[in-house]
Structure formats: structure tokens, C-alpha cells
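We treat protein structure as text, and this decision shapes the records that our systems exchange. We quote a single record here, exactly as it is kept in our systems:
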Amino acid sequence: MKPKNYLMTLLTLSTLTLYGQTKKCDETNFHSISEKVGKLTQNEIADFLLTFGEECRNNVEYSELSNELLFKLLDKQTELTLKTIEKEESKIELKTILEDLEEPISYTPDFKKLLTKINAVSVNDKLKGQVIERLKTADEKY
């Protein structure tokens, strides 16, 4: 392979590998995400959602921070968060995210207002129903 072709291939692969690459349980961007809640893009929300995983359950710091951010995102950017979940459903661990919605750790939203916001969003009925069901369960517990 010619050096020029090799370099172009290497640069292309590097770009594809780095773009949007998110690791499970990775909380390195949580501070910037927290500061931008209300102004996040769909890609930023997707990157956050991709950090959720069953393997993160024993990581106390990650669990607290991700749980709090999840509720803040749903509260402040309800429509974009739900539409991002819907769009990225095949890539994210929806089951883990839904389990988190049932167990608020350090941030307890006004569930009635949040449920009203969620009901107003036009997304897949199955997804909306799952989110609402989990939030109602959380509301009963807290």
C-alpha cells in the first residue's frame, strides 16, 4: 500500500473509531453534561445514554451520577430525551435505563409534572408506556 493511501486509511479509521465512542460506566463527561442540561444536543444525550449498562450496577459513583442526570434530562429536555431513547433503542441498554427510572437515588423529580410532560411527547406508545409505568412505580415508592 502506498504511504499516501495508508495514511488516508489510518486517518479514516481513527475518525470512525473516535466519533461517538462511549464506554459503559464512563462518567468522565458527566460534569459538562450536568452543566448543559437544558441545552444538550441529541448526540450528547445519546452518548450519555450509551454509558448505561448492567455492568455499572456495582459502581456507586457512576450509579448516583447517571441516575441524577437521567432524571434531570427527562425533566428539562423531556421530548429530546425520549426521542433519543426511541432513536437509539437498538444501541442503548433500555432495560437498565428503565430500571433506573424506577429507583431515583439522589434526585427526586416532581413525578406528576414529569408524567404530564411525558404524556405530551409523541413517541412510540410502547416506549412511552414503559417509561410512564416505571415513573409511576417510583412515585409510589418515594
